Amino acid sequence: MRISEVKSTSREQRIAPHTHIKGLGLNDEGRAYQQADGFVGQSSAREAGGIVVDLIKSKKMAGRALLLAGAPGTGKTAIALAIAQELGPKVPFCPMVGSEVYSSEVKKTEVLMENFRRAIGLRIKEIKEVYEGEVLELTPEETENPLGGYGKTLSHVTIGLKTVKGIKTLKLDPSIYESIQKEKVTVGDVIYIEANTGAVKRVGRSDAYATEFDLEADEYVPLPKGEVHKKKEIVQDVTLNDLDIANARPQGGQDIMSMMGQLLKPKKTEITDKLRKEINKVVNKYIDQGIAELVPGVLFIDEVHLLDIECFTYLNKALESTISPIVIFATNRGMCQVRGTEDIIAPHGIPVDLLDRILIIRTLPYTLDDIRAIVQIRARIEGLDLSEDALNYMAESGVKTSLRYVIQLLSPASILARTNGRENITLDDLKEVDDLFYDAKSSAKILAEYQARYVS
User: Fold this and answer.
1) What is the CA 214 to chain-centroid distance, rounded?
2) Which of 221, 236, 251 represents a domain boundary (last residue)?
3) Which residues contact residue 406 at a Cβ distance below 8 angstroms, ignoring those fewer than 6 apart?
4) Contact at 8 Å (CB) between 257 and 238?
5) Host domain of residue 197
6) Among 321, 346, 362, where does a domain finish?
7) What is the distance between the alpha carbons of residues 159 and 137, in angstroms, rounded to a whole number?
8) Is 192 helix (H, G, I), strand (E, B) or coil?
9) Which long-range contacts (CB under 8 A, 24 or more apart) does 85-91 make?
10) pLDDT tier, 164 (very low <50, low <70, confident <90, very high otherwise)
11) With a threshold of 0.85, does the pTM exceed it?
12) Does 141 lie in the same domain as 103?
C-alpha cells in the first residue's frame, strides 16, 4: 500500500508583480537606501514619496494630488504601493485604473465619487459594556425540536471567558453563536461580546499559545486585564462608501453601519448627492462631538490619461471638497491629446488647470546595476536559483529591452530548467527562452519589416 501526504495549499500566497515591495526603504532622516524593502534605485522618487507619507500621517495632504510620471516599467505602481505599505493597514488605500470609469450601467462621475469615498476612512470610538476574555470553553447546547421530527435545534451556547482577574461562564442566545461562527472563534482566542447588541469581535489569539505551531493565528494578543464584564472603548474603522451602501440598502445588523442606517427609513434608495450630504452632516457632527475621527486615505488612479475631460473637470471639483482623500495619479504618457476633446494637447494627457494642483514625481529608467539587483530579488521571492552568468545576461537584456520583459522570462526559464532535470537556471536556458519569445521592441521591428504581409 502506498501512502502519500497531501500538501495543503490554503496558506500559499500568490506571487504578484509587486509582492517584493514592503515599503519605501528610507532611513530615519528620510533618505533612500540604494536597496531596501524590496526597492532598488529611484532614490529621489522614493524620498519624495516619504514626504508625502509624512504629510498624510499629519493630515496635511487631504484634497491634494500627486502625479507619478515616467516611462513604462520605471516603478510608478511600486512607489504607490510602497506608500500604502508605509501608511499601514488602518489608512484606506483604494487603487483603480482610468478605464474603470467607462461603464454602460454607472455614470463616470459616480464611479469616481464611489472610489473617492472608499478612500476616506472614519474611525469611531465608543464606550461600550462588553464581556471580554480568552475563550476557555465553547459548547453549543442542543434540544429537541419543538415542531417534532428527528432534528434538534440549538437552545443556547455556553462560553467560558478568562481575564487576568477571573473567569466567567456565559449562556448565550443562538443568534450570538452565528456571530461567533462568522468570526471563526475557537478555544484560545481573545474575543469581546457587546452586552447590548450581542456583536462578537475576535481580537486575536491568546499569547499563551504563542509557542505552538499555529499557522492560522493572525496575531497574538495578551490576556485582557480587569474583569470579564466591564466598560471598554471600542474603535471601529469604516469608510464613507461603507456608510453610503449601508444607508442606500439598510439592513439589520450589529455594527456602526446599522446605527448610521437610522438616518433614512426607506427600504432602498440610490446613492444620491442628497444622501451623501446627509451622511456628511452626521459624520461632521460625530467629529465635532469627538466620537469619530476622519482618516483621509489614498486614491490611486493608474493610467490617468485614460480619463476624459468630463472626469478631469469632476476631479477639479472633488479635490476642493472639505472631505477628500489624497489622490495619486500615474501615467507613462508625454504630450498627448486630452481624451474627450478634439484639439487639446496637454502634458501627460491631463488638462493644464488640473496639472496646476498636482505635485509631480518623476521616475527614471533603471540602470544596469538596478536591473540586476531587481532580478535577483524577484528570483529570490519566486524561489528560483540563477547562475551568475544568467543574472548578468538578464541585466544586459533588461537595458536593451525592458525590466518587465526580463522578469517575465524567469518563470518560463525555470520550467525549461526543470524539464532538463536541473533546479538552477543557466545562461543556456535564458537564451533559449529569449529566442522563443519577443519583447515589444523586437516585435515592433518585425512588424515594420513585414508590414505588407499583415492585414492593415
Assistant:
1) 25
2) 236
3) 371, 375, 394, 395, 397, 398
4) yes
5) 125-236
6) 362
7) 5
8) strand
9) 85/21, 85/22, 85/23, 85/24, 85/37, 86/23, 86/24, 86/49, 86/50, 86/53, 87/53, 87/56, 87/57, 87/297, 87/298, 90/121, 90/123, 90/237, 90/295, 91/56, 91/121, 91/295, 91/297, 91/298
10) confident
11) no
12) no
How far apart CA 185 and CA 191 sit, in angstroms, is: 8
Average pLDDT (297-313) is 90
Residue 218 has pLDDT above 80, yes or no: no
- Residue 446, classified by CB atoms within 10 Å of its CB into exposed (0-12), middle (13-18) or buried (19+), is exposed
Q: Which helix (H) or strand (E) holds 68?
A: strand 65-69
Amino acid at residue number 356: D
CB 202 within 8 A of CB 220: no
pLDDT of residue 449: 87
Here the cell at position 385 is 536559483
* CATH code of 157's domain: 2.40.50.360
> Residue written as cell 525555470?
414
Closest by Cα among 112, 82, 149, 78 to 308 = 112
Contact 333, 76 (CB under 8 A): no
Please spell the DSSP secondary structure of 303-314, one letter per residue. Answer: SGGGSBHHHHHH
Tell me the H-state helices in 325-367. 352-355
pLDDT category at 149 given cuts 50, 70, 90 is low
Query: What confidence tens digit (pLDDT) does each residue in 117-130 have?
Result: 888 888 888 788 88
The domain that holds 390 is classified in CATH as 1.10.8.60
Q: CATH number for the domain including 65?
A: 3.40.50.300
Q: Are residues 352 and 374 in the same domain?
A: no
Residue corresponding to grid cell 532614490: 43
Looking at the fold, whether 133 and 200 belong to one and the same domain comes out as yes
* CA dist., res. 394 & res. 439, Å (int): 13
Q: What would the DSSP string read from start to end of 96-129?
A: EEGGGG--SSS-HHHHHHHHHHHTEEEEEEEEEE
- Residue 130's nearest CA partner among 226, 218, 260, 217 is 226
DSSP 158: E
Separation of alpha carbons 304 and 455, rounded Å: 31
* Cβ-based neighbours of 436, under 8 Å, separated by 6 or more: 412
Q: Could you tell me the maximum CA-CA distance found in the chain, to the nearest angstrom? A: 85
Residue 130 shares a structural domain with residue 195: yes
